[in-house]
Design a protein that fits this description.
By secondary structure, the protein is an alpha/beta fold. It folds into two domains: 269 residues, no CATH class; 113 residues, Spore Coat Polysaccharide Biosynthesis Protein SpsA, Chain A. Helices cover 55% and strands 11% of the residues. It has a seven-stranded mixed beta sheet, sandwiched between helices. Strand 2, helix 5 and strand 3 form a beta-alpha-beta unit. Helix 10 packs parallel to helix 11. The longest helix is centred in the last third of the chain and has 31 residues.
């Protein structure tokens, strides 16, 4: 991608940051008549649509957790599992062994591990595993091949021949019957792509991992609700199933973004391809265990989240997607990316001017909504590891934990609008513990 494209992103980031700043500054210095009505209207819209989205999970919770156990082997498609692995010596052997232990016809399952320029023992481990598992396919890339995870996956596509692709991270763990249940879900819903709910394996290691476990359940609550209300759902990178021909029609994986999953989600929506979310079984993965790793990961997620709206925002406004989908995307864009910037600037100005924050009712409404989703996510029955302590105090602490986004989003938006940016992919360290 050329430099003008990056400059375009930078300009859009600057305009977005300036717009949020003006929305914050103007009410502090100018007496706007009936501005309180605007605040009240914002709170009302957030409450109504947010509760509507969360409430859709009630229907999911009362449905029996069943699947077609007699799904004919003839109906099962050829599946290619793709894993991009760089420096994954701690987890790669466990992953491969478990993948070959999954319930699925051996003649219809292909497993590809892309050694993406590893500098640790990953290549040696993969060489040993290839002798143990004859059907294991190893694809190697040079360290400077470029494109990050997206580049590795695109490179592997030319070796695949299945109808469907399942993209996993190297630390992923699946239940033995996951693939059978996954394709039973696909058959019932006629989905073009499906995201498995994410679950944390090291949930009880410390406060951060426990909170991330609740955050993933909270995220799935909103995902399922948004899908039910507006038909909007997002991929999450690990545990995403995609029909290969649909992926190719959308342009494969974008190598010019730091979050290929979020980018692909919007392109699938624009092409009117249906993304589903499967609550159980989940894909299990490691949560990061310290603040440094958490903020590094969240900065990448925040940057990728903004990049997709800057890249496809004009298409979202003009394309023939449903008006409800446009509203949903606008609603969550403002809530996820606009509100943190406005709230932080509002707080800073209030302290400097020694006056009350103006937007506190909106922030309080958003946090209350998050609290409800956290509570519901924590109380929902679900497979996979769960936190040992899911009481009210833990939910309140998790809500405090979620406030880190009010630091990450403004910082990332400011960086994107000021500093020249080149795409940098930072991997998350997996310990295998």
């Amino acid at each position: 991608m050329n430099n003008s494209f990056y400059k375009n992103r930078r300009l859009k980031a600057l305009l977005f940051f300036v717009a949020c700043s003006l929305l914050t500054i103007i009410p502090h210095f100018f007496d706007i008549k009936h501005f309180s009505y605007f605040i009240f209207a914002c709170c009302l819209v957030i409450s109504f649509y947010g509760l509507l989205v969360i409430s859709k999970n009630i229907n999911r919770s009362i449905l029996p957790n069943t699947f077609n156990k007699n799904l004919s082997e003839i109906k099962l498609p050829v599946l290619d599992i793709l894993v991009a692995a760089r420096d994954e010596e701690n987890v790669i052997a466990r992953l491969v062994e478990r993948l070959f232990n999954l319930d699925y016809p051996r003649n219809k399952l292909n497993i590809y591990i892309i050694d993406d320029g590893s500098s640790d023992k990953t290549p040696l481990i993969l060489e040993r595993l290839s002798k143990e598992f004859e059907k294991l396919k190893i694809i190697s890339r040079s360290p400077n091949a470029g494109g990050g995870k997206s580049g590795a996956l695109n490179y592997a596509l030319k070796f695949t021949h299945g109808e469907w692709l399942l993209v996993l991270d190297a630390d992923a763990q699946l239940k033995k019957d996951t693939l059978l249940r996954l394709f039973s879900f696909v058959e019932e819903g006629s989905w073009s792509s499906v995201q498995l709910r994410k679950s944390v394996t090291n949930v009880n290691n410390n406060f951060l991992t426990s909170c991330q476990s609740m955050e993933m359940a909270y995220d799935a609550i909103f995902q399922y609700g948004r899908l039910s209300v507006a038909g909007v759902c997002e991929l999450r990178g690990n545990g995403e199933l995609i029909k290969k021909d649909i992926l190719l029609e959308c342009g494969s994986f974008n190598e010019d973004t730091v979050t290929d999953d979020l980018d692909l989600s919007l392109r699938l929506l624009l092409s009117k391809s249906r993304i589903g979310i499967l609550w159980d079984p989940p894909v299990m993965e490691e949560a990061v265990e310290n603040l440094s790793a958490l903020f590094s990961q969240r900065q990448r997620w925040a940057e990728g989240g903004l990049q997709r709206f800057f890249d496809y925002g004009d298409q979202l406004l003009t394309t023939k997607i449903d008006n409800l989908q446009k509203f949903d995307l606008t609603f969550f864009f403002i809530l996820q990316y606009g509100l943190p910037i406005i709230s932080m600037l509002d707080l800073i100005l209030s302290i400097a001017l020694v006056e009350s924050p103006i937007y506190w009712p909106v922030s309080l409404t958003a946090f209350t909504l998050s609290g409800i989703a956290l509570f519901y996510g924590a109380s929902c029955k679900r497979e996979g590891p769960v936190s040992e302590n899911r009481n009210l105090l833990k939910i309140l602490l998790s809500l405090v934990y979620l406030s880190h986004w009010f630091l990450v989003i403004p910082w990332v938006a400011m960086k994107m609008s000021i500093f020249p940016k080149k795409i940098l992919w930072k991997k998350t360290l997996h310990t295998g513990v």
